[in-house]
Structure formats: C-alpha cells, structure tokens
Design goal:
binds ligand C2E, 24 helices, eight-stranded mixed β-barrel, alpha/beta, single chain, binds calcium ion
C-alpha cells in the first residue's frame, strides 16, 4: 500500500512540477516519503516475526491508529494536487485517487474494521471536498467512487465473514477430530482393560482359565504343525481349604499369591502359567526338558520352603498331573483330560504326588470310558446287585445290621468293583439313578428280614449335593413301607465337604425322617474334629487301614484307641471295619471296641446267602484262628 501510494504520489508530483507550488510537489511528498519509509521499514522488520497473542494484540491496537492517520494523509496528499492541474491533470489525479481507494481496501481486507473506517474516512473527505468544489461532474465522480468502494467493502465484508466462519468450522472440526481421537484412545484403553480383566485372575494377576484355554489351543496347533514338544501340567494345593477355614480367606489368598510369585520366579519365560480355579494351577511348557524328573524336582523345590501364616509356618502339599503331546493326542481337550487324569492319580498316590500320563493310564482311561458307556445302558438295572456284609456285636456275635455294597456284573467287562465304577458313575452323572436302583433292591430284600436288623446304605458326594435326592429317597422308603429308623446312611468326610451347604440340607431332611447318619472311612479324609461336631452323627466307622495288623506298638493302635474314646464321649456308635484276623479282633476287644465288620466274620454276601444265614439264627462266629488269613486273602 505504501509503495503504491509513493509511486502514485511522486508521479502526480512530477506531472504537477511546473504548475503546483513547491510545498505540493516537493515538501509534502518528502514528508510523506519519510513517514511511509518508516512504515515500510517497520513492516519489513516484522516480516518473519512470529508474535505471541499479547504482542499481536498490541500491534493490532497500533495499526488502527496508523491506518486512520495514513488514510487521512494519503487522501489529503492526493487532493493537494487537484486545484493546480488542468482538466487532463485533474483526471490523472482522480485516476490515482481511485486506484489508491482499491489499494487501501484490498490491503486492509483482512482488518475488516480498519477497511470500513478507512473507506468511510476517505469517502467523507472526498465528498466534502468535491461538494464544495464548484464543478458538479467531480462531485458525481466522488459519489460514484463512494458507491463503488462501499459495494466493494460490502462484498469483501461478506467474504470476510465467510472466511471467519470457515476458520470457526475448521476449528470445530479440529476440536471434534481431537475429541474423537481422545475417545478412541479411551475406548482402546478400556478394551485393553476389559481384555485384561476377562483374561486374568484378579487375585494373582496370572492368566485365568479362559486365557489358559486359548493359549493351550494356540500352543497345541503350533507344536502339532512344527512337531515340537508340548507339556501340560495341572497342579493343585493340599491343605488350602483347611487354611481358609482356620485362618480365613485373606490368609488363604496370601498363600495363593505366594504360589503365583514362586511360579513366576521358577519358570522360564517361554513357559505359560495360569490359575484355573481356587487352588488349581496350570503350566504349559514347550521345553522338552519339562519331563517327569524335572517336574518332580521343580515342585519339590517350589514347595520346599514353608508358607508364613500368622504365628506359624506351614509346608503345603501338592498334586500334579502331566501330559505330553504326541501323535495319539487329537485335540487340546484330550491333552487337558490326560493331565487331569494323571493329577487325580497323583491325589490318590500319597508317595508320589507328580504323575505323568503314560500308556498304562491310557489303557485305564479307555476302560473308564467303556465303564461310563456301560453304566448308561438300560441293562444296568439288571446287571447291578447288592451284597450285604454283616455288622457284628463282638460280645454276643450277634448280627445287628448289614452294610449294603453295590455289585456289578457286566457281560463284556465282567465283575467291576464299586471302587472303580462308583467314581465314574459320579462323573458321568448317573450316580443318583444308580443309588436309587440299589436302594430299591435293598428294600425289597430287607422286607424278609427281622424288623430290628439295621441296614447301612452308602451315599456319595453327588447324592448329598443334589437337590431333591433326599425327597425321592424318602418316597422310596415310604413306597416299600420301610421304617426309616432302621436305616443308616453312610457318608464320608470328602463327600460331605464336596458341597457342604447342600450336603447339610440333604442330611437334615434324612435325619428329620428318622434315618441315622454314619461317618464312613473315618481317619482317611480331612479328619477334622470340627466336622464331627458339626454333623448330627449317630455312628462312626473306623477305616480298615488302621486295623490291618493292629498291635499296641503300631500307629493304628493309638488312633483307633482315641476314636473309640471319642465315640464314647460323644455317645455315638463306633464300628471298626476290615477286621480280618483273630489277633486284630483281640486287640480291638482290649481297646473297648464293641462292633466290628470284616472278613473275619463274613465277606459281603449275596441276598440268598444272607437270607439263609438269618434263617439259621442271628449269630455268626468269627473264623477259626488258622483260617483267618485265608479268609482275608
Ligand atoms: P466302604 O463303604 O468302606 O465299604 C467297605 C468295603 O470294605 C467294601 O468293599 C467291603 O467289601 C470291604 N471290606 C469289608 N470287610 C473287609 C475286610 O475284612 N478286608 C478287606 N480288605 N476289605 C473288606 P467294596 O464292596 O469293594 O466297596 C468299596 C467301596 O465302594 C465302599 O467302601 C464304598 O465306599 C463304595 N461303595 C460300595 N457300594 C456302594 C454304593 O452302593 N454306593 C456308594 N456310594 N458307594 C459304594
Ligand atoms: Ca461304607
Ligand atoms: Ca468304610
């Protein structure tokens, strides 16, 4: 703007050199040149400046003033030539004035207020000047110029407003995009968190069952395709339940945390460990070294150090099952089943808690599958029978009752012992039906026996924890007009603890009907005295493992002695199981035992044999000394 004004101004000065006075052609232009030179200098200085907001506002304030002054000075400068020129020069001056108008308007178009102010000021001066000038056509030119410049300002103003709107819109868009990005980050973080929660155990931070199954699938596929080793190990802790019961769940949680810490410390980074549930953990190792000796040493080392409890230290036991991937393992689930199977064996085997699934186990598992299938066959009702083992009062040799024991003779499998098929019947969900079928058989047989002969009947964990089982059980007694007071139900500690709350409800229903309750295999399970106090027991059965070869110097002696004393204190019956020899009987008699059950008196008998025995009287003699071992073998 300044450069164009100078060029225009000096051009007019030169063309008016001979007609205008010196203050118009030289002095005024020189002053204007100095002023505008200074403005140009300042502008050039600021050319590359990147002012802050405060600085910009300060400049803006100054520019308002400078603009008004500059516009005023230009206008007056241009007009100063006007009275001295002939009509040609006047037209030339008007041309420069018009050009300057456009220059001012365009250069100020981004400073809207300044543009309007300058236009009004310049127009005001020109209109006032030409109004007072005596030639009308110049006033017309001034009015026309005012109209054109105002129209231009109007158009530019509208453009300016559109431009501002555009900036706002782009600002809004930018803000929206930023917000969207922030939300995306937030969503991503949330989904990361959700993924972590869904796949990790909140207590130990270890991957959970879901995550473990996914990892198992992944590693299984990779190992199968690449032919690399894969070992799956499942293990659980012994005694955590007792710690929870005695010290509370918080201390139990501490123990679990410590186990997770030790796992993390001792396992290589390629191995994957997870907490499956409660006290159950899993390890996946692609390392071929993770074999049986390694696993045994690993667990021995991991559990060698004791765990700190309030005021004491305990060493935890564990049971681990390992399964290795090979051609016969068709799917990840099969591998898992094998590891679980091996772990169950580890639980039963007290001397060796770490078991690797091998060919023998595979054969056993196949047999178990066949047993499970056969148990589902409709022929099962006919194939099953009940054997009855007398329970005898030592003093009088009188049979006070019989224990009902399941017997199964299958066409293909032959005679399957209850110790084999009862757990499978539990797992495959047929145990309730089976128990009720056996009960019916026992009730039918008992109809012929003396009214005071007691019947002991075994119940399993599933029986106790199934709602509605007790009701059906009692309905059957009613149907067969069997007096519930004659019946004793035998339960084990393990079966009661399986689902203690439900078991308690079942037991209560049975007890209210008048049925007696007996704790079977006492001494082999948790043997927690609190259970004896919490259950409405009428009888306790001492397990035969304490009886075999019992002598005053054996550990069984002390245990049986205290069990008999415990029953006497609590006023409940004590039956000692598995008595096989006269020597054992003598020792038991000396300890004060009154009731026994065992091969020494009788093996479990078929219904007809027991019928015959009862017909010949209620007493039974123990086998003579020389025969006792033969009977037991
Ligand atoms: P249990 O309830 O402890 O039954 C006693 C077991 O000891 C019976 O084995 C019996 O034959 C055996 N036995 C009795 N006297 C002697 C002896 O002097 N020496 C030796 N070595 N053994 C003796 P069985 O019939 O093989 O039953 C094994 C287990 O299967 C039972 O142990 C019981 O837990 C379970 N069982 C049997 N029948 C049923 C049933 O109908 N329902 C349920 N839930 N479980 C059953
Ligand atoms: Ca029993
Ligand atoms: Ca028993």
């Amino acid at each position: 703007m300044y450069v164009i004004a100078l060029v225009g101004g000096w051009w007019l000065a030169m063309t008016h050199w001979s007609v205008a006075p010196i203050w118009v052609t030289l002095i005024y232009p020189a002053v204007m040149t100095a002023y505008m030179g200074q403005r140009i200098f300042i502008s050039l200085k600021r050319w590359n400046a990147r002012p802050g907001r405060a600085e910009l506002e300060r400049w803006h304030g100054k520019i308002k003033f400078v603009t008004v002054v500059s516009t005023g000075l230009f206008t007056l400068w241009m007009l100063s030539f006007f009275p001295y020129g002939d009509p040609d020069l006047q037209v030339q001056t008007l041309f420069v004035i018009a050009v300057m108008f456009f220059v001012i308007i365009f250069t100020l178009m981004n400073l809207r207020k300044m543009m309007i102010l300058s236009t009004l000021l310049a127009n005001g001066i020109y209109l006032a000047y030409f109004y007072n000038y005596n030639q009308q056509q110049f006033l017309f030119v001034a009015v026309f110029l005012a109209l054109v410049s105002c129209g231009m300002v109007l158009v530019l103003n509208m453009q300016y407003l559109d431009f501002v709107k555009l900036i706002h819109t782009s600002k809004d868009l930018k803000a929206q995009a930023e917000e969207l990005e922030r939300k995306q980050v937030e969503t991503w973080e949330l989904s990361e968190q959700n993924y972590h929660i869904a796949n990790h155990d909140s207590l130990t931070g270890l991957p959970n069952r879901r995550c473990f199954l996914a990892e198992l699938d992944k590693r299984f596929e990779t190992a199968k395709v690449a032919g690399t080793p894969l070992v799956l190990c499942i293990f659980d802790l012994g005694g955590l339940r007792t710690i929870n019961e005695i010290y509370g769940v918080k201390i139990g949680d501490e123990v679990l945390l410590e186990v997770a810490r030790r796992l993390d410390q001792k396992l290589s980074s390629q191995s994957f460990s997870a907490r499956l549930a409660g006290d159950e953990f899993a390890i996946l190792a692609n390392n071929g070294d993770f074999d049986l000796p390694w696993a045994k040493a690993f667990f021995r080392d991991m559990f060698a150090e004791s765990f700190s409890l309030p005021e004491t230290q305990v060493r935890l036991s564990y049971h681990a099952g390992l399964a290795r991937l090979h051609e016969a393992v068709a799917s990840p689930i099969v591998l898992l089943e094998k590891a679980v199977y091996a772990q169950q064996l580890g639980k039963r085997n007290k001397n060796d808690p770490v078991v690797l699934f091998d060919a023998d186990h595979r054969a056993q598992m196949t047999l178990n599958t066949r047993i499970a299938q056969a148990l589902r066959s409709p022929a099962i009702v006919d194939e099953m029978s009940v054997a009855y083992q007398p329970i005898v009062e030592i003093e009088s040799n009188r049979i006070i009752g019989v224990e009902c024991l399941a017997r199964w003779n299958n066409a293909e499998l032959g005679s399957v012992p209850p110790g084999s098929f009862i757990p499978i019947a539990e797992q495959s969900g047929v145990i309730n039906r089976l128990t009720l079928d056996l009960l019916i058989k026992a009730l039918v047989a008992a109809a012929n026996w003396p009214d005071d002969l007691r019947i002991a009947f075994n119940l399993s964990a599933t029986n106790l924890s199934s709602r509605g089982f007790a009701v059906t059980f009692l309905e059957l007694l009613k149907e067969h007009r069997f007096n519930p007071a004659r019946l004793t139900c035998e339960v084990t500690e393990t079966s009661v603890l399986w689902d203690f709350t439900e078991a308690q409800k079942t037991i209560q229903i049975l007890k209210e009907a008048g049925i007696r309750l007996s704790l079977d295999d006492f001494g082999t399970g948790y043997s927690s005295l609190s259970h004896i106090h919490n259950l409405p027991l009428d009888c306790l059965k001492v397990d035969r493992s304490f009886v075999s070869g019992i002598r005053p110097e054996t550990t069984g002696y002390g245990i049986v002695k205290s069990m008999i004393a415990l029953c006497r204190d609590r006023g409940i019956l004590c039956i000692v199981e598995g008595v096989e020899t006269r020597a054992e009987l003598e020792v038991l008699k000396n300890l004060g035992a009154r009731y026994v059950q065992g091969y020494l008196y009788s093996k479990p008998l078929a219904r007809e044999d027991l019928d015959a025995l009862l017909r010949s009287g209620r007493t039974i003699e123990p086998a003579p000394y020389e025969e006792t071992r033969a009977v037991g073998s």
